[in-house]
Design goal:
mainly alpha
Length: 69
């Protein structure tokens, strides 16, 4: 996924991030990113369940109503 990124390049990227945001801000950014990923996964799971529910409702035969009474 990361291709040719080695240890030196990764260390340089982390150093630049540390300089840009500061040591105190990095945990806040990571926490926010973690919450965002969790919300995205929850939304994707909910959407998948809704699609499955709609598919089962469409594939099941309609119920017959008793008109006698």
């Amino acid at each position: 996924m990361l291709g040719g990124i080695g240890a030196q390049e990764l260390l340089l990227i982390l150093l630049i991030i540390l300089l840009l945001f500061g040591a105190r801000k990095i945990p806040e950014i990571a926490r926010g990113l973690g919450k965002s990923v969790a919300e995205f996964k929850k939304g994707a799971k909910d959407l998948e369940e809704e699609i499955k529910r709609e598919d089962t409702e469409k594939s099941s035969p309609p119920e017959k109503k008793d008109l006698a009474g």
